[in-house]
Every structure is written in C-alpha cells, then in structure tokens.
Amino acid sequence: MNVKVGRNDPCPCGSGKKYKHCCGGVAAPAPAPVAAESNDGAVGRALAWLAQHHRKAFAAALEAEIDSAICASFDDDEEARDAMAAADDALWQQVQINFSEWMLAEGDITVKGEPCRVAELLLGPRGPLLSTGQRAWLAQLAQRPLRLYDVTEVVPGTGLTLCDAVYTTQAPITVAEREGSRTLRVGMQIGARLMAVADGHQLSGAVYPFAAWAGRALQQHLLALETADDDEAIDDLVLGFGLEIMDAWLAQYLHPAPLPQIMHSHTGEPMVFVADHYEVKDFDALTSRLAAQADVSGDQNAGWSRSLLCDDGQTRPLVSIEPQPAAQRVVLRYQTAGLTERGRAWFDPLAGDTVKFLIQDITDPKGLMSTSAAGPAASPASAAAGPLPAGIDAQTLADVIEAAIKRSYARWADEPIPALANQTPRDAMTSAAGLERVKGLLRSYQDGEAQQAAQQGRRTISYQFLWDALGLKA
C-alpha cells in the first residue's frame, strides 16, 4: 500500500528537507529535454487542430479564463467591462497569446458534456498529427509550471539569468532568449514557463512582465500562499501560482493595485524625500562648523553625512549635505518628515548666518512608484538625487550624485537588504542562488543609474566600488 507523503512532511529521500522543497517541489525530476528547434510549429499546430475540431468549446473556455482574470481585480462587473474595453490592441494581442498557451498547458474544455484537459486531447490517439519534437514540446509544456522569476542578468540578443522569486534557494537558471533579452531589463520580475532543451533552457513563449511594485506585491502574496499549513491547499500550489500570476499580470494594466506605504527601516516613519536648499554665504565658516561635529563625516568636496550609531550596531545616515560651490548652495536631504524636522532643529542653529534658507522640495515615494514602467526602478541614490536647482552644470551634478551614492552605499555590503530576504549581501553570497541575487541587485543599480544619467545628460556613475567591496567581478 502506498502512503501519500504530505508536502510539509520530511522528504522520504532522506535529504532532511520538506517534501515540497525536495522531490515533491520545484526541484522534482524534470521532463526530458527536447531539441531547441522542436517547438517550431507545435503551438500553432495545436491551436489549428483545436479550431478545427473543438472551436466552440475552446473559444468558450478561453473567454471564461480571460473573464475570470479580469473580474478578479474588480468588485463590479461593469467596471471590469469598461476597463477591458479601454485596453489597447497590443494588450489584447498579448492576452490572447498568454492565455492560449495556458489553455494548452493546463486548461480544460467541455467535450460531449465532460471536462477534458486540452493537453490530453492534443497528445491522445485522436489528437493532431505531430512530429516527434512537437509532441515532446507539448508534453513538456503541460508539465512545466508557470512561475515568478527575478531577472538578474540580461545579455541582449543572447539570453537571461533567472532566479525563482518564491523558492529563493533554487539555483539560478540561464535561459537562451534572443527576443526577450532585447526588451527585458535586469531587476524586472516576470512570469514564465522554463522549458528544458538539449543545450539548456528556453522560455515557452508566453511571458508575463511585471512593473516593479506590482511584481513585489505578487511575490509577497505567493510567499504567503506557499507557507500555508493546509495540505490540500498546498497540493494545489502549482496550479494556483499560475492563476495568481495571470490575474496579477492583467490587473496591473486594468486596475493597478494600491501602492504600498514605504516605511523608513529605522524610525518606522513613512518615507518621504525632502530636500532643503540653502544659499551659502561663507563656505569656509560652514565647513569649519561641520568639521567640529563628532557625528558628521566628509568635506566640502565630497559632501557631508550626519550619522547615528543604532542599537543593532548599524550606522545609519540622518541627513546628507551636498555642496554646490559653483552655485554657492548646499542641499540637505532627508528621508522622513521627522528626520527633516529634527535635522532643521540641528542644522539651522549650527550654520547660523553662514547660510540662508531658500526652498524645500518634497517627493512622495508613491509618486515615483506610480510612474515606474515594467522594469527596475532607478537606484535609491539616483532616485533621491532628483532634479537640482538651475545653474548647476552636468559635471558638477555628476560629482554631487557620485558623492551621494558612495556615502549612501558605504556600508551596503554588510547591511540587511529586503530584496535579499533581509540578509546582508556578504551573507547572501555564500550560496549560489544568493550570489546571483546579489549580482542581480548590483546590475539593477547600475542599469537604473545609466537611465537616470541619460535623462539628466551627465556621465554615468559606476557602482564598481560595491563589486570590489565584495570581491566580485562585474
């Protein structure tokens, strides 16, 4: 008698891991690889056969899946219809591609009053005439789950490196992908099926790219589902993850989820980027007064930073002070309203008559998130830099931002990073999966900085110093 092993039980192979994380999980034995070219025509042949033999049933099931995904993010059917009516042709085309592949891989249609899995019809004795390679491709498609991945490296025209966004200990996977590697960016999250081919892996065809914040919200949701204690619910995770990915992918276009409140990790206050601009009447006197402060480091060339040694042993910045000698100004940057208030109470009496307050700029992080495209956000330091007052040239702007980046990331290698499951980069890189995630994070910083620099018409600041701090090669 065979005893069913629960997905939260110890794996019978003796690895010491839970069954769902070992032989019963995403690391289970994979279908046999197929030739890289064997997918040619497989999906088209399958869809043509379904259109000929089960046209109404397939069309009805496809429409039902799309309607279900649309309605998942709306409380009102009329709102759902209005949102979809406003969708452009490009989105509709991608919906058709993605949901048609879902039907081939995991969908059901009604045949003679009975539900039938589409894959079984295609591969059964009455299915379409397929080549050996096409049959192998469709068979593997039916076994490969739709998963959420972090894009940690992109080689345009060649391929991608992906890391599972839920099972974060899984080894990174290199994917041969010519077209996708030209449009996807490092730091993105995508939903995809990875197909095993003779020389590695390929994407199945359908890809679900996520905007930065929509992807993170979905990742947290999937992590919560993965930790469920209900064995019956856990057994449905593979199917459930795919449905959640499809629903969330479509929802970001039709009905974006409310943006999260970003909280400052130390103070617990809501994050808000504040820049106080001052005219400097006497740089020498201001420099002398700042140099006399025990908790202030830096100089007039690189700028200053006032920091606080916290109870957990980490030193965290309270304010950065960016000099602009050419404009006879300094900019003080804070990350919360509370830090701003306390900073003003410290700086204004200290600086005294050496400065004159000019203006305050306030940027809500939600505003930055709401305008982000389906790609990585700019690096935190670059985003915080923002547009500076008129009169500063590109070289000075680059120098100021470079100094700010190097101050902000001075202890980065040994600080807990949320994107690394609150591990420090130095600790995370001890595993193959963690090392690739650290590299991916550094690549996303550099990519975001390159975009920011292009927009501002200045030189790109290098993050090589972070690679060097960890002993890594870019």
What would your notes on this structure say?
By secondary structure, the protein is of the alpha+beta class. 42% of the residues lie in helices and 20% in strands. It has 18 helices and 13 strands. It has a six-stranded antiparallel beta sheet, sandwiched between helices. A five-stranded antiparallel beta sheet has the order 5-4-3-6-7. Helix 1 crosses helix 2, helix 2 packs across helix 4 and helix 8 packs antiparallel against helix 10. The longest helix has 25 residues. The chain is elongated, with a radius of gyration of 27 Å. The protein starts with 41 loop residues before the first helix and ends with a helix. The N terminus is likely disordered.
- What class do helices, strands and sheet pairing give? alpha+beta
| Main beta-sheet strand count, sense and barrel state | 6 strands, antiparallel
Overall average residue pLDDT: 81
Q: Fraction of residues in helices?
A: 40-55%
